[in-house]
Specification:
The complex is a heterodimer of chains A (185) and B (459). Chain A is mainly beta and 185 residues long. In chain A, strands 4, 5, 6, 9, 10 and 13 form a six-stranded mixed β-sheet that branches. In chain A, strands 2-12-7-8 form a four-stranded antiparallel β-sheet, with no helix packed on it. Chain A has one helix spanning 7-23; strands at 32-38, 51-53, 62-67, 71-77, 98-101, 106-107, 119-121, 129-130, 132-133, 138-143, 151-153, 156-160, 172-184. Chain B has 459 residues and is mainly beta. Chain B has three domains: 33-161, Immunoglobulins (Immunoglobulin-like, Sandwich); 170-273, Immunoglobulin-like (Sandwich), CATH 2.60.40.10; 284-417, Sandwich (Chondroitinase Ac, Chain A, domain 3), CATH 2.60.220.30. Helix content of chain B is 8%, strand content 44%. Chain B has helices at residues 7-23, 363-368, 438-453; strands spanning 29-35, 39-43, 48-56, 64-75, 81-84, 99-101, 105-108, 113-121, 130-139, 147-161, 170-177, 186-194, 204-211, 216-221, 234-241, 248-257, 263-273, 284-288, 294-297, 303-307, 316-322, 335-345, 355-360, 376-382, 387-390, 394-396, 401-406, 411-417. In chain B, the strands form six sheets. In chain B, strands 2, 4, 5, 7, 9 and 10 form a six-stranded mixed β-sheet that branches. In chain B, a hairpin with a 4-residue loop joins strand 24 (376-382) and strand 25. Chain B is globular. Classes of the chains: A mainly beta (185), B mainly beta (459). At the A-B interface, strand 1, strand 3, strand 4, strand 10 and strand 13 of A face strand 1, strand 5, strand 9 and strand 10 of B.
C-alpha cells in the first residue's frame, strides 16, 4: 500500500492543531487568579446616632478578579494593624472599628470600640453584610470563569453609629483593616 | 489648518491639569496574579508532589511586600473557604503539616514575577480519603484613613490519598423555616455536615412541601454548588419558597444529593402555617404600544400598572418580577420596608405620559407603619440617581390600596415613612440632566477651560 501525503493537507492539519491549542483553555493545574485592588477609602466623619456611608461605588476601592474557574471574594477582620504591622487588634472586636494610635500604627489594648460592626456591600449597596471574624467570613461577590477581562467589584462600607458612642483621644481614631480575599472554588 | 496656542493658554491648561491631579490623586493599586491558584491531585502515601505558584504584578502597579503561609482549610456555613490559623486548624483531614514552602515573604516590584514552590509530602500512614490546606498570599495594609484593607489570594490545596478508601457521606443536621412575611418568599435552610472522608462538589438541595392530605404543594431547590464541601464541616443550603400556602399543617422534605444524583441524606419535618401567607407576585409580561392603553397586573391582582395610550413612542415589552426585600438597595433614612417589593423592567427611559401604579398593601406593610396606613407610601428606586423616591401616594383604606403616578420604573417597595413625602419627589419629569458630582464638575470645568482658552488661528 502506498501512502501519499500532500503538503497542503499537512499544513491544514497543523493549522487545525494550532487553532485547538489556542481555543482550548489551560488545564486545571494552571489555574489563574488575578486580584487587583485600586484606590483607598476616605476618612469617616463619625457623628453619634447616624449612619455613615463612607464610600460609594465611585468613591472607594475597585477590585477586579480575573479567574480561570468559579471564584469568590470574602471580607473579614483578621485583627490586622495598619502598614503591615503585626495583628494586635483586641480579640472580641472583630468587625468593629476600634481605638487606634495613628502615630504608631497599633491598637489601644482594652481601648474603645464602636457598638456596631462595619458593614460591607459588594453589589453596589443593594445588600450589606457585617464584617466578621475570619471564621465567619462573608462572601461579597462571586462569579464564574471570566478570562480575559475579569469582573469588577466595588465594595462599599457602611457604619451605623449608636447614640452613645464615645469619642477617642485627639491623637487616636477609630480604625479597622478589612481583608478582601479572593479564591477559586 | 494650523493651530497655535498662546502662552496664557498653555499656563491655563497646565494649571487645570495640576488642579485635576490634586483633586484626583493617583490610585493606589494592590494587584497580584497567581498562576497555580488551586491544587487538586492524587498523591500516594509516602510520596511527594510539588505545586508551583507564580506570583506577578503588572508594570503600572505599586511595589508590594507579600507574605505567604500554609493555613488550615476551613469552610463557613455560607460555603465560603477560609484560611484558618494553625491554632484553629483541628481537622483530622488537615494537610497543613504536610506542606512546606520555599519562601515565606518577598518583595514584588512592578512588572516582576516570583515563583514559590510548595512541597507536599504525604506520610506513609496518612489514612484514607482527602486532605486539605490553604496557601494564603497577602499584602500589607493599604490606606491611611480610618478604614484600610488587605488584599489576599488563597490557594486551595485538595489532596486525594491515592488508592485509599473514599467515602462521600453527608448528614442533614437541621432543617429550619425562616420568618413568614406576606409578599416575600420564605426560606427553608438545610444544614448538611460532610460526614465522609472526602470533599464533594455540585451538591444540591431539593425541598418538597406536601399538605396534610399528602398532596404536593410545590418543589424548589438550589443550583448545584460551585464550592466543594470538605469533611467535618457543616454548610447551609437556602431554598426560597414562593408558592401560596393557606393556614394548616404541612410536611417539608429536604434532600441533599450529589451532582450524579446520589442522595447524601433526606430529612422530613412538620410545619404549621399559622399566619395568612401571601406569595410574592408572579412574573407577568405585556407589550405596551403607543396607540392603546394597557394594564400590567400580577395574577393575584395585588399589583397593577395602567399605561395610558401615548405613554410610549414605540412598542415596549414590560415585565413585572418578584423582588426580595434583601435585594432592595439601602432604604432611605426614616423609611421602613413592609413586605411588598417588586421590579418592573423593560422601560429604560421616561414615559411620555404618566402611568398609574396601584398596590394592595399587606398586613406586613401595615405592620411596618405601626397599623397606620396613612404612613404608607409607594417608593421607587431610581438607578440613574442611585436613590429612592417616595412618591406622593393616595391611600384608600377601604380597598387597602396605594396608588401613585410615575413616569419611570425599576425597583419598587411599599414603605412606611416617618419623615413624610418630599414635595419635590414623585413623578415629576426630571429630564436628562446628569446628577451633579465631582466628576461632572471637573469635566465641565475642563470643557470651559478649553472653550474659553483656546485661540485657534486658521491660516
Amino acid at each position: 500500500m502506498e501512502v501519499t501525503v500532500h503538503m497542503r493537507l499537512v499544513s491544514f492539519v497543523a493549522a487545525v492543531f494550532l487553532a485547538m491549542l489556542v481555543i482550548y483553555p489551560a488545564p486545571a493545574s494552571a489555574a489563574i487568579t488575578s486580584f487587583s485592588v485600586t484606590g483607598q477609602y476616605l476618612n469617616m466623619g463619625l457623628i453619634p446616632g447616624t449612619t455613615v456611608y463612607n464610600s460609594t461605588a465611585a468613591n472607594g476601592i475597585n477590585a477586579t478578579v480575573v479567574s480561570s474557574g468559579p471564584w469568590k471574594i470574602t471580607a473579614y477582620d483578621a485583627l490586622d494593624a495598619g502598614s503591615g504591622g503585626a495583628p494586635n487588634k483586641p480579640a472580641g472586636t472583630e468587625g468593629k472599628m476600634s481605638e487606634y494610635v495613628t502615630a504608631t500604627d497599633v491598637y489601644v489594648a482594652a481601648g474603645k470600640h464602636l457598638t456596631n460592626a462595619l458593614q460591607v456591600s459588594g453589589d453596589g449597596g443593594s445588600t450589606y453584610k457585617n464584617v466578621n471574624a475570619v471564621g465567619t467570613a462573608q462572601t461579597i461577590a462571586m462569579g464564574n470563569e471570566n478570562l480575559p477581562d475579569g469582573t469588577s467589584v466595588k465594595p462599599i462600607f457602611k457604619q451605623v453609629l449608636a447614640a452613645n458612642e464615645e469619642a477617642v483621644k485627639a491623637a487616636n481614631q477609630y480604625h479597622i483593616i478589612v481583608t478582601f480575599e479572593a479564591s477559586q472554588n | 489648518m494650523k493651530v497655535t496656542f498662546s502662552l496664557h493658554l498653555v499656563s491655563l491648561i497646565v494649571a487645570g491639569l495640576i488642579a485635576v491631579c490634586i483633586l484626583c490623586p493617583a490610585p493606589v493599586t494592590a494587584s497580584m496574579t497567581v498562576v497555580g491558584s488551586k491544587y487538586m491531585g492524587d498523591i500516594s502515601p509516602g510520596t511527594t508532589d510539588t505545586h508551583i505558584m507564580t506570583i506577578s504584578s503588572k508594570p503600572g502597579d505599586a511595589p508590594m511586600d507579600l507574605s505567604i503561609a500554609v493555613m488550615g482549610f476551613g469552610e463557613t456555613p455560607g460555603q465560603n473557604y477560609i484560611s484558618l490559623p494553625p491554632a484553629d486548624d483541628t481537622s483530622p483531614y488537615s494537610a497543613r503539616n504536610f506542606i512546606t514552602l520555599d519562601a515565606q515573604s518577598f518583595h514584588l516590584n512592578p512588572g516582576e514575577s516570583k515563583t514559590v514552590k510548595a512541597t507536599i509530602a504525604i506520610p506513609k500512614n496518612v489514612g484514607d480519603g482527602g486532605r486539605y490546606a490553604m496557601i494564603q498570599l497577602k499584602t500589607g495594609a493599604t490606606g491611611s484613613g480610618s478604614t484600610g484593607y488587605v488584599t489576599a489570594i488563597s490557594v486551595p490545596v485538595m489532596i486525594t490519598i491515592a488508592k485509599s478508601a473514599i467515602t462521600q457521606k453527608g448528614t442533614i443536621t437541621d432543617v429550619n423555616v425562616g420568618d413568614i412575611v406576606a409578599g416575600q418568599p420564605f426560606h427553608i435552610v438545610t444544614a448538611l455536615q460532610n460526614s465522609g472522608n472526602h470533599d464533594y462538589y455540585s451538591t444540591k438541595n431539593t425541598v418538597t412541601i406536601t399538605d396534610s392530605a399528602g398532596n404536593v404543594i410545590g418543589t424548589a431547590g438550589t443550583e448545584p454548588s460551585s464550592s466543594t464541601i470538605i469533611p467535618t464541616y457543616t454548610v447551609n443550603f437556602d431554598v426560597p419558597f414562593d408558592k401560596p400556602l393557606s393556614l394548616g399543617t404541612y410536611t417539608i422534605k429536604s434532600q441533599v444529593s450529589l451532582g450524579d444524583g446520589t442522595v447524601l441524606d433526606t430529612k422530613t419535618i412538620p410545619f404549621e402555617m399559622k399566619t395568612k401567607y401571601i406569595a410574592p407576585p408572579s412574573q407577568e409580561n405585556i407589550t405596551v404600544t403607543p396607540q392603546k392603553s394597557a394594564v400590567l397586573a400580577s395574577s393575584d391582582g395585588r399589583i397593577s400598572v395602567n399605561f395610558p395610550s401615548g405613554a410610549v413612542l414605540s412598542d415596549v415589552a414590560v415585565t413585572l418580577k418578584p423582588l426580595s426585600l434583601n435585594q432592595l438597595p439601602a432604604l432611605p433614612e426614616g423609611a421602613k420596608a413592609g413586605g411588598t417589593s417588586f421590579r418592573i423592567e423593560g422601560l429604560s427611559g421616561l414615559l411620555s405620559k404618566d402611568a398609574t401604579i396601584s398596590v394592595k398593601y399587606s398586613d406586613a406593610d401595615l405592620s411596618a407603619a405601626g397599623g397606620d396606613a396613612s404612613k404608607l407610601v409607594l417608593a421607587r428606586y431610581d438607578t440613574p440617581d442611585n436613590k429612592w423616591s417616595l412618591l406622593p401616594t393616595n391611600v384608600n383604606k377601604d380597598t387597602t390600596t396605594l396608588s401613585a403616578t410615575t413616569n419611570r420604573f425599576g425597583s419598587w417597595a411599599v414603605m412606611a415613612s416617618t419623615g413624610g413625602v418630599p414635595a419635590a419627589a414623585g413623578s415629576q419629569k426630571t429630564g436628562g440632566f446628569l446628577p451633579l458630582n465631582i466628576t461632572t464638575v471637573i469635566v465641565s470645568l475642563g470643557v470651559m477651560v478649553v472653550i474659553i482658552g483656546v485661540r485657534v488661528k486658521k491660516n
